[in-house]
Amino acid sequence: MIGNKRVSGILLIAGNSTRFNSNNNKNLERINNLPIFLYSLKVLDSNQYIDNIFLVVKEEEKDLISLELKSIEMSKEVFVIAGGATRQQSVFNALKASNSDFVVIQDGARPMLKDEYINSSLSELVNYAGTTIAVKSKDTIKIADDNDVVIETTKRQNTWIIQTPQCFDREVLLTAHVRQDGNPDITDDCMMLENEGHKIKLIEGDYSNIKVTTKEDINIIKELITPTKL
To answer: Do strands 52-57 and 150-153 pair parallel, antiparallel, or not at all (unpaired)?
Structure first.
């Protein structure tokens, strides 16, 4: 709880892992013999402001995930709920299941979550309906049309790469989900609020907070992460 506001953590592990080039859920890949998603789950569990956690999984993996949870000690209640066909649907399911004031949304495949990311993001919800951890782009980013022809070049100092966690006023985000349900152009929850006219606060994180997208990312994270006893 932050102030008098209740907070739910939402951990998403129901994706299809399409770019991972494997038949397995990348969130269940193991680093130091631990499934990737457990690293973020434990940080959410230990955070002083989070009251409960919603773990969003594939329906067919509920039993497997529940078995993994039995192998660790948790201090907070974890609700395992079924996700949808898309990330948008999975978040929507969690928003409906929670009755908290604020939500912290985290990708299960981003195991380098830090407590300070959550705290900094939540603190800005006093002034904004949504916040996200991000890093400034190191490279020049160009915007192209459908024919791969450059339309414009962004200012590097104003171009950010978005990460998670992302934090929101739950009611505001839930309303946005209802209004924009099924919009294929939505790539993250911040965009939903942007479409509703809300301002999103970017909070600078660091470049180690990478997401496992391909198998090469596993090797990178192995070099960054320290062995943890859960």
So the answer is: unpaired
CA distance 132 to 104: 10
Structure tokens, 109: 């495949």
- Rounded Cα distance, 84 and 202, in Å: 27
Which tokens go with 210?
A: 């990478």
Structure tokens at 63: 């039993």
CATH number of the domain encompassing residue 57: 3.90.550.10
d(CA 22, CA 69): 23
- pLDDT, tens digit, for every residue of 129-150? 999 999 999 999 999 999 999 9
In a domain, 229, yes or no: no
The reported pTM is: 0.93
The total number of residues shown for the chain amounts to 230
